[in-house]
Amino acid sequence: MAAQKGKLVLLKADLTGDSPQVFTTIAGLRTTTWTVNGEDVDVTTKDDNGWQQRLSGAGVRSLSVSASGIFQDSAGEETIRQWAFDQSINLFQITFENGDTLECRFQISNYERTGDHDGAETYSLTLSSDGTPVYTAA
User: Fold this and answer.
1) pLDDT given at position 83
2) Cα torsion for 53, 57, 62, 64, to the nearest 10°?
3) Which element (helix H / strand E) includes 24?
4) CA dihedral defined by 79, 84, 85, 86, rounded to 10 degrees?
5) Is the peptide bond between 20 and the residue preceding it cis, with omega within 30 degrees of 0?
């Protein structure tokens, strides 16, 4: 398996909500991280000799995405900021260098902008999934 370039992992959003969906890259990104989360369901009893047992396929699963970058005052970034204020749920897509995609509806659970007196303004956001993600291999 060949290594892939991290700079080609792109976070995109359907900024209009029209059909068919058109995904626009969120401008100025430097990092994108996605994490699959799953709750453990402990089913250990006294009969398990002190070893923890888990129930496969149970528990709540979720997907979280965090991203950060240089704020560029683009229309896309302004839309993302408004979604954060509205706490709306919107469709996002992550694309990978090999052409794979991951799509899911997300709510922006954290949005932050910072600016040092001697540097560029930056932003970061965290997305929390709503529903089942769809991973499509190229």
Assistant:
1) 95
2) 70
3) strand 23-25
4) 80
5) yes
Do 76 and 23 meet the contact criterion of CB atoms below 8 Å apart? no
CA 87-99-25 angle, to 5 degrees, is: 35
d(CA 69, CA 57): 36
Helices vs. strands in the chain: H and E counts, helices first: 1, 7
Q: How confident is the prediction for the chain on average, in pLDDT?
A: 91
Helices (H), 9-101: 75-86
Give the DSSP letter string of 78-108.
HHHHHHHHHT-EEEEEEE-TTS-EEEEEEEE
Question: Which residue reads 């290594």 in tokens?
Answer: 3
Q: Which pTM was predicted?
A: 0.85
Mean pLDDT, rounded, for 83-111: 95
**How far is Cα 69 from Cα 32, in angstroms, rounded to an integer?**
9
Longest dimension (CA), the chain: 63
Rounded CA-CA distance 122/29 in Å is: 9
pLDDT of residue 73: 80
Query: What pLDDT does 44 receive?
Result: 95
